[in-house]
Amino acid sequence: MSASSTPPTPSPLPSLAPVRPRQPPMSTARVALALALFMGLQPITTDLYLPALPAIRRELGASMHAVQMTLAALILAFGIAQLFWGPVADRYGRRPVLLAGLALYTLASIAAALAPDIHALVAWRAVQGACMAATVVCGRSIVRDCYAPHEGVQVMARGFTGLGLIALLGPVSGGLLTEYFGFRAALAALAVSSAAILLFAWLCVTETVPRRNPDALKLELLLPTWRHIARHPGFRAYAALTACTYGGLYVYLAISPFVLIELLGVSRAGYGGLMAGGSLAYLAGTVACRRWAARFGVVGAVRRASWCSLAAAISIAALAAAGVQAAWAIVLPVWLYAFAHGTHQSCGQSGVVAPFPGHAGAASALAGFVLSATAFGVGQLAALAFDGSAAPLVAGIALGGSCTACVGLLAVRPHGETAAA
Predict the structure, then answer these.
(1) Which residue has the higher pLDDT, 150 or 212?
(2) Where are the domains of the chain?
(3) Which of 15, 55, 148, 410 is most buried when burial is the number of CB atoms within 10 A of its CB?
(4) Class of domain 28-209+227-415
């Protein structure tokens, strides 16, 4: 896309936008905390058990591909289920969808911890992904329900700062639990975490949707709604931004336990510490996003983060080309990538729903599906290419950073300031 091209104006959505309440139904602090917990369930679900992947392969006698399917199945189910939960949340409200998704996730987590073999574990991880989709869709939608787009970016960044704090605990806790109690303890910790989030949602989260959409689940109206959303240039730009940056990070999540622990000799606890360092970098990126967005606008924040993404891509590729075989040569560029990821996700997650106040659930779901489908695709390619070396991991970060920079600098720039469609 170029700044000189003028995209066609999308046709109106098939239903009216809702009447927004004068005051948000919850305080900004509570909304930010809720967002951190609901969105934070995703990195907890992936990061907490990452140090356990080599142990799962060894103790269940599974192949490398089968073990990675525990992550791939989760991501694929997560993406597809968002297409269901988004319209359901527009039709029945955010609160009932949240409670149902968290309750089912807790049960699926218990079953995953008790799985007798790798096939059962893959199946229950897919169920976890489908249930997790409800919390992520509703988390993004709650922000759009309560705030205008320019305010939503700031609230989203505050929530993602909290998410970064939560993500700090995941890999460290997973490494320690696996080291001393086995991989099932790490999986059981997911059930405890989701039960705590469910209690918070039950006690502290009120309904935020201004007006339920009775037509949200009608297929003859839902398909035109998705077409309209997909045609919006601002949605395309931000959906591509979040998909590209997460795609590169997903390759790191899927392969890094085997590269860092088995190839480079990092301990499980040490691996958890390195992952926590990435979470700190991500947290710093969300803080930078709040400051950059307030000073330079959303487009300015994305632009600055895009240069960081490109620098991470170049540095990890250059170190690999120079023959440097050390954990720091991978981890330091990834931390820079994670810093930029914090800004891209804060701006992107707000940007995909900003133009659609009456269809925030549907827009959130469609963007989530694009992100998850991208992650699943690149993850499968990385798994097939994995030969025991760090090359696929390096290629994933380099490609993810380069694509993210291109989208951030070329696509978001002309379509970054979104308005309600």
Answers:
(1) 212
(2) 28-209+227-415
(3) 55
(4) mainly alpha
